[in-house]
Amino acid sequence: MVIKRRNDFKNEIIIMNNKKEDKKVDVTNRQGSGSFYSTVVKDHFFHPKNFMEDETGYIADGIGMVGSPACGDVMRVWIKVDPKSERITDLKWKTFGCASAIAATSMMSVMVTENEGMTLDEARKLRPQDITFRLDGLPQRKIHCSVLGDKALRSAINDYLRKVGQTDRIEIEHGRIIDKVLKITDHDIEEAVLEGADTLEKVQDKTKVGTGDPSCIPEVEQLIRFYKEKYYGAE
Amino acid sequence: MRKNKQNVYLDHAATTPMDERVLKTMIPFFTEVYGNPSSLHAPGQQAHEAVSQARKTVAKLISAHEDEIVFTSGGTESDNLAILGVIKIGEADVKSRLGKDVIPHIISNELEHPAVLELLLVLQKRGEIELTLVKADKDGVLLAKNIAEEIKNNTILVSVMYANNEIGTIEPISDLGKLIIKNRKQTGLTYPLLHTDACQAAGYLDLNVEKLHVDLMTLNGGKIYGPKGVGALYIRRGVRLLAQVIGGGQERGLRSGTQNVPGIVGFAKALDLVQAKREKESARLEKLRDRLIEGLLKIPKSRLNGHAIKRLPNNVNISFMDIEGEAAMLYLDAKGVYCSTGSACASTSLDPSHVILALGMSYEAAHGSLRFTLGKSTTKADIDYVIKVLPPIVEQLRKISPVNLDMEYFSNGNKEKK
To answer: What pTM was estimated for this model as a whole?
Structure first.
């Protein structure tokens, strides 16, 4: 899945899936529907799938957690892995967050476990955009609420690999961690810039970077300048 | 809005439905009395007369003179006119008294509505004013004495809201007014002036400007069962403002633009109606408010934001730990209960309520806050319905939530576990 690069992301996001079908997700013009969120988002928000009802007695092969309540989002993910096929056979979660955060984690749990489950390698490649796509889009200012679920998943996968002694396969988040609290990397900032965020405020809208760890903001600003020049040329 | 058990509107601080009587008063001014109040012919003079009558009504209700009322497009414009208008004139005064390098000083506080606070922060950033934000106590109460102590020789304006829009806390405007007048007497200066935003207070509190000792007061229609997009600024005789909207010289040159005649007529009618009923309605709502507070505080790990008594009769604001406000608000929405939240997720910025943070509460508490603001249509049955539907929602969201914080996290001074 590739995010189509656009300079003007004011009114819409355009997401392309693997089959190269273009799907236009209108995120701002929902006038008339009387609702801020898509039907799919509402379904997953009001009827969350696979959330962890009772931890007692649940034996997880890997557990991951990301976020902090002060920043407004915390996600915890439990996975069961079939050691032979390396498929994720079960995923349970808990989320502290708004409607989009809850719906995005719920949808992620469905995507990871459907069709006999993703392999660890497939699951690692899951990106927030894939989840947003399956949710029929999120309102522009809610995109950032969906970006933590996949991180919690990768953290659970790493936990599994650590437990089974395959530490050489542990993948530290692509790139370097910039925001230590939210585990946001330079790669996340690169993606935000690619999606049209050209100021610190806009990058924060997408990633929340710096809300838990304001000390990283000067570095974030530097990275935004760097990626803007890289992709859109010097100002 | 049609009303039944599944339609409980508890967001009156955001805006109110319009009173039918207000609408009825307004209707002729769209099609029958359509003239421009500035025109000298009969239709114009009819419209002019209607605006004059409205001005008289508003003036009388707040114990002011007609020439002290300027109609605007609402609360934000009135706040902006008050602040920007005073600065430009006050600046000249400060510079002539204290020298060219001195800029005007304004005193306000962290709990103000963005129409005041954001404006002041922008002006401070631009280097146009020196700004002091006085701290409130943990219930959002400001002390008049603490504010008056900050007055300096270049202070031109003190701006403090009458009642807070988020937590309903009522501020001691009258006491503050007295201290400011005393200060002016001592120095012999015309400054500082006192401005108050009374948008949330207008339906429930005494707006007598003589008792409040204010020089400028903001009012608007959309919070008092009147039309949105219309408001007024009270400007005490002798207070000089620089106009912010320049044009044809309407509203004594302070606010150009053809008057919104139906809006102004409706606004005056709405203010008349709410002020006539305010004592009775306040007493009725206080009971319902306290019933809701009592019912919701039975939910474990909850806390009331704002002062229990120095509080608007229609405001309930409670934080629930371990859940996020937007999620709770939307679950309530699905049950037909309409409220609002101080969570960052429901705002366009990434910041949770600046008011709840200013009380010394933690980010977690701000994220988990819900505001219910009662109104004319609110009944005991509505309150009991909320008390019935909210606890299972909080329980459900806590089940989904991986967070389980101690109560001590409510306060931001206590974050480290003991």
So the answer is: 0.84
| Residue closest to A93 by CA, chosen among A85, A80, A84 | A80
| pLDDT top residue among B346 and A95 | A95
ipTM of the complex as predicted: 0.81
Question: Is residue B153 located within the same domain as residue B287?
Answer: no
DSSP string, B192-253: -EEEEE-TTTTTTS---HHHHT-SEEEEESTTTTS-TT-EEEEE-TT-----SB-SS-TGGG
Its domain, for residue B386, covers 8-16+278-399
Number of domains in chain B: 2
Structural domain A174-235, CATH architecture: Orthogonal Bundle (1.10)
Residues B349, A120: Cα–Cα separation, whole Å: 36
A145 is catalytic: yes
- Between CA A230 and CA B14 the distance in angstroms is 44
- Cβ contacts (< 8 Å) between A47 and chain B: which residues? none
CATH code 3.40.50.620 for A37-171? no
Contact A75, A67 (CB under 8 A): yes
Convert the pLDDT of each residue in B161-185 to its tens digit. 999 999 999 999 999 999 999 999 9
Active site residue B345: yes
Predicted confidence at residue B23, as pLDDT, reads 98
The answer to whether the CB atoms of A46 and B334 lie below 8 A apart is yes
CATH of the domain at B145: 3.40.640.10
